[in-house]
UniProtKB/TrEMBL annotation:
Compositionally biased region (Low complexity): 195-208
Residue intervals of the Large ribosomal subunit protein bL25 L25 domain: 8-95
Protein function: This is one of the proteins that binds to the 5S RNA in the ribosome where it forms part of the central protuberance.
Region of interest (Disordered), ranges: 192-229
Keyword flag rRNA processing: no
Protein name stated in the entry: Large ribosomal subunit protein bL25
Taxonomic path: Bacteria, Candidatus Cerribacteria
Domain of life: Bacteria
Domain called Large ribosomal subunit protein bL25 beta: residue spans: 103-189
Organism of this sequence: Candidatus Cerribacteria bacterium 'Amazon FNV 2010 28 9'
UniProt-listed NCBIfam families: bL25_bact_ctc
UniProtKB keywords: Ribonucleoprotein, Ribosomal protein, RNA-binding, rRNA-binding
GO molecular function term, any single one: 5S rRNA binding
Length: 229
C-alpha cells in the first residue's frame, strides 16, 4: 500500500481549446479536476512539479492538490494522463477528487516478478490480466499487484487470484473469482509444415486423339468412342 502523501500546487486555467499548445511550449500541462460532487475545474501545472509528485505518489497514491486561491488542498488521484504517441510528452492530466471516507473503484496494474523455470525450458508464459479492478478506501488502494512467476515450474502450472497477497479486509476485487487464472505456462506451438503433393504424371499413349490426351491430362475419363458402322 502507498502511504506517502505529497502536495502539488496548481493554478486555475483560463486558456482553453487549441490555445493550450502555448502552455505546453512553456513547460505547463493543462489539467482538470472532477469528482466528490463538485463542479469540474480547469487547472494547469508545471511539468516538472507534476512529474515529481507523480513519482512520489506512485500509480494509485493520493496527492493533496492545492488550487491557488483555495484554502484547503483537495485529496485527488491521478485518473488519466494523456501522452503524445511520438514524443511521449504529457499533453493533459485529469485529477479525480475523492472523499477519504468513501470507497472508490480503481484499476490496479498486475506486474510479473521473478523468473520461471518453465519459461527457461521453452514454455510460454501467458498473462491473462494486465490490471484488476478493486474497491477500497482511497488510502487503502494498492499501488500494484505482483505475480511471482518463479512458482511456475512446469507446463500447466498457473497462478490464480487466490494466490495474490493483499489485505482482503480492506481491498475487494471486482469481476473476478478466487479461482480465476492470472498467469499460466503453455507448451510452445509446433510449426505445421504443409506438404505439397506433386501432381501425378499421366502417360499419354502415342497416337491418342486430342480429346483423349486432354482428358488424361485433366485426370478425367476419356470420352467414349462411337463405333463406326
Amino acid at each position: 500500500m502507498t502511504t506517502q502523501r505529497t502536495q502539488l500546487t496548481v493554478q486555475p486555467r483560463i486558456i482553453l481549446g487549441k490555445k493550450v499548445k502555448q502552455l505546453r511550449k512553456a513547460g505547463i500541462i493543462p489539467a482538470s479536476v472532477y469528482g466528490n460532487d463538485k463542479a469540474s475545474v480547469n487547472v494547469q501545472v508545471l511539468q516538472k512539479n507534476f512529474a515529481q509528485a507523480a513519482k512520489v505518489a506512485g500509480d494509485n497514491g493520493l496527492i493533496d492538490l492545492l488550487v491557488e486561491g483555495e484554502s484547503k488542498p483537495r485529496p485527488v488521484l491521478v485518473d488519466d494522463v494523456l501522452i503524445h504517441p511520438l514524443s511521449d510528452a504529457t499533453l493533459h492530466v485529469t485529477f479525480r477528487e475523492v472523499n477519504l471516507n468513501e470507497k472508490v473503484k480503481a484499476n490496479i496494474a498486475v506486474e510479473t516478478i521473478g523468473e520461471s523455470e518453465a519459461v527457461k525450458n521453452g514454455g510460454v508464459l501467458v498473462v491473462a490480466y494486465n490490471e484488476l479492478e478493486v474497491e477500497a478506501l482511497p488510502t487503502d488502494l494498492p499501488e500494484k499487484f505482483e505475480v511471482d512467476i518463479s512458482k511456475l515450474k512446469a507446463i500447466g502450472d498457473d497462478i490464480k487470484v487466490s494466490d495474490l497477497v493483499f489485505d482482503r479486509n480492506k481491498v475487494e476485487l471486482q469481476g473476478v473469482e478466487a479461482d480465476t487464472v492470472l498467469a499460466t505456462i503453455q507448451a510452445p506451438k509446433e510449426e505445421v509444415v504443409e506438404e505439397t503433393t506433386a501432381p501425378a504424371e499421366v502417360e499419354i499413349t502415342k497416337g491418342a486423339t486430342t480429346e483423349e490426351g486432354k482428358a488424361a491430362a485433366a485426370g478425367e475419363a476419356a470420352p467414349e468412342k462411337k463405333e463406326e458402322k
